[in-house]
Design a protein that fits this description.
Strand content: 5-15%
Oligomer: single chain
Number of strands: 4
Length: 225
């Protein structure tokens, strides 16, 4: 991961063989891919040029020619599937644009996705140009939410992660995200269709007293009263 713009990184790696841009994640984050040796060499050369470079624990050089062996069977699988025209605009991070209505063209984009760079920055910018203002991240953590914030910077938008903190209760965070989206005006209903039906509570009687923290008053507080 290189903390710089696409233009800066593209220029810097022009004479570095075996290295290519695999992801354009934001205005200031570009992911490079290639062989282990090529990436190690690029790491040293980019740091020498003054770039901030962060090695990533990735299991393979995705979106480069090193995964071509997986692209062919994936493409064969795509060809056998039945596709319908998208009912709503669905954006591809291969092109950054909406998937076409032509199903052969749609299949081709999906078949090539493993080999093509991820143009996440372009995708978000095009959604914004089309009127998108609310961005919701599904999945663990909030990496994409932060990238959206960097891409759109001071532009009017809201980015919400469903489960931003791995150390906090995921159910609670989901419900907090739902509340935020409802405040924004999204008509979300029945967000927990599997919730347990609670038994009816007994009728309230004057003999019943609810116990909670506010029933207790310490001696110093009594004196203050």
């Amino acid at each position: 991961a290189v903390e710089a713009s696409q233009e800066q990184v593209q220029k810097a790696i022009a004479n570095m063989p075996g290295v290519r841009i695999a992801n354009v994640n934001s205005n200031k984050q570009i992911i490079l891919g290639g062989s282990t040796l090529a990436i190690q060499t690029a790491n040293q050369q980019l740091k020498a040029l003054g770039f901030t470079v962060i090695p990533l624990p990735i299991s393979a050089a995705f979106h480069t020619e090193f995964v071509k062996h997986a692209q062919k069977p994936f493409a064969d699988f795509i060809e056998r599937q039945k596709f319908n025209r998208p009912l709503i605009p669905v954006y591809s991070n291969t092109t950054g644009n909406t998937f076409p209505d032509d199903l052969n063209a749609l299949k081709f984009i999906l078949e090539e996705q493993i080999m093509k760079p991820v143009l996440f920055k372009n995708q978000i910018e095009n959604i914004y140009k089309a009127g998108g203002r609310v961005f919701v991240e599904f999945g663990p953590k909030g990496v994409l939410t932060k990238l959206v914030g960097n891409i759109l910077e001071d532009k009017e938008h809201i980015a919400i992660a469903i489960n931003p903190n791995a150390k906090k209760d995921s159910d609670l965070q989901f419900r907090q995200a739902v509340i935020q989206l409802r405040v924004l005006g999204l008509p979300l209903t029945n967000v927990d269709p599997y919730q347990k039906e609670m038994p009816a509570l007994p009728a309230v009687s004057k003999m019943n007293v609810k116990l909670s923290g506010n029933n207790y008053v310490s001696e110093p507080t009594k004196k203050a009263y």
